[in-house]
Design a protein that fits this description.
alpha+beta, 13 helices, about 20% helix, 5-stranded mixed β-sheet, 5-stranded antiparallel β-sheet
Amino acid sequence: MPTLSAYYTINEIRSVDTSLRSKDASVPFTADLNGDGHADLVVLGAYYPGGSPDYSPQAGRVLLGDGMGNFTPSSAAAFPTSTLNTVHPRKVLFADFNADGRSDMFVADHGWDANPFPGEQNRLYLSTASGSFDDATGLLPQLKDFSHSAAAGDIDGDGDVDIFVANGYGSENMPLSYMLVNDGKGNFSSTRDNIPAHKGGVLDFTGANPHHFPGATLADLNGDGLSELLIAAEASAPFDALKNSVVLWNQDGKFSESAMTALPAPAGMTTHIDLDIQKIDFNGDGRQDLVVVGTNGKPYYDGAFVQLLRNDGGNGFTDVTAGSMAAEDARTSIPDTGTGKPWAMWVKVLDFNNDGVMDFAVEYNGQLKPSTPLVWLNDGSGHFTTLKVGDFVNAGDEWRLGNGHFYKTENGYSIVAHQYVNGTSGTNGLFVGGLVSTKPYQEHVAWNFAGGDLDDQIATTAVNNTINGNAGVDTVVAAGARAAYSITKANGGYQLRDNKGTDGLDTLTNVEKIRFTDMTVDLTIGANAATISAAGLKTLEELYVAFFNRAPDATGLNYWITEYRNGQSINSIAESFYDAAVQYSSLTGYSSTMTNADFVRVIYKNVLGRSGSSAPPDADVNYWADLLAQGKETKGSLVTAMLASAHTFKGNATWGWVADLLDNKITVANYVAVQQGITYNNAADSISKGSAIAAAVTATDTSAAINLIGVTDSGFSLA
């Protein structure tokens, strides 16, 4: 019994279209084309080399899915399959090219895959307002090129989806690659001005030393909103000039070799053909890493390899495959030795076991074995275990998954496989089968996370996680608000517990911050605050109250603690606070044009709570204002002098409440910033909530203010 039998049922292969009479049929592609939330199936006609060289376009089919593994042919009114004719389709792009909220379809078809390599017309289908599709191939360049791949992404930051047409092979007179720039409505302009498609360039497949490349991807790798261009290299022969796959970094919509990173070649492969590259943050550090799949160059297209490339920032990548998975899961290709094992066509990034951490699956061409790995499950730190063919089906049933394709159904990820029969007798046409998920798979969930040497962001999952941030300033990202969690110190680190019991108990080591959906807790501020005197810390907290009339945020206070420890004086820091207060005069009440007397009155109001009926008499105001006028105090130093004066009224029958109010404001300020380490996640909240908290403090009570903070485990303290 397969280990996954509780999650899958066999979808017996059955006829879905007896009218199809193409010579061959492509591998399956899926996308939700009719907008019903279920994946639909696209099977394209093909004329593969062998037999008669009559490489005429062959008919394809679109079949509508029900989310339960069943497919029925689309009507001609819904999709114009009469024009869906292809010779050798290599890749299908599904994206909303015309910005109507539905998937459209671009087909890269390189045509007859043998001499004279004549090329073929690519095809485009756009959704319409009525819910059907139009054949919009006429909007594409009308030419026969050898498009071995294509990629979709926003290259110019205008919010629409552009297309890179990857012509990595062909005869000498075949067109080089080009970019189709979208106007937002599905109208495309062809250009090579923004890519290195010139003689001798990285995209030039002609000449004695061609740059052959079977695959391409557009993906934003640095978070700037612009897609980088990834080129998958073929390095199977000595004359192949492109020995490594490359990243062409987006420079305001343009790509060139001057901003290019050569990716590490797969280890142990003397020749290699990289077929697909996809982005995946496999170690949870917030940077987009890469997963590469491909096959041997010698023997040609024999076996498979998987490669993991960690994004180190600064446009650099490191091959971490050997430390991330078992050797047998990383490579079945053997240099210079035939294995007869299937080769990897595509890699699909997905959360297979529903744990919030991205896994990936590989789709193959060739005869599957029970030991062939299909799904790589991520433990959260970038270490993978695999589910193999033998985990899905019994021995002898491997054929059911031949050319299998993972797609989402109502209960999880299913596998669709098809067979095409075009014989002289019996039942002919298109047959579809595979495996259908009966319930979501939730085993081998991620639990162990480790950061690198840089600043990492590591998200928690629904189980008990062990997280070691290692070097850098590392942030753990929780799924809910701060009030939903408890934090406790444990074994030199911290434990983070979801109070509802749905997010597990996470053990954190070498982690500096925890970001919740509403606020971030700085775990370092307590230790940093202990490096200065208690009096110095108190004065820094008082400056926040004096100049901003709000509780400090941990990030800002932590910065000023470090500055004070490094020698900056309190008066100098106070001057910096004054400069900031003037910039936000509408919030603080300070302005660069106010009189000295008005400046003093704001201090009385913010710090001492004296306004209205308790406002200071003019004589008191003038005393402090004269010190400014005479140059005996600066505005920064005057605040510290008034703070010190206020404390002298402690216990005074008339004005003792002023000192009590100031003390309570500092108590709350310390609780927010030092004990709880809180910084709200956006500046507006830091100002509005910090001000509301300070305003709720009275001379006799702090509980109302503390209740506004949004923390339930009030016993937690970083101090």
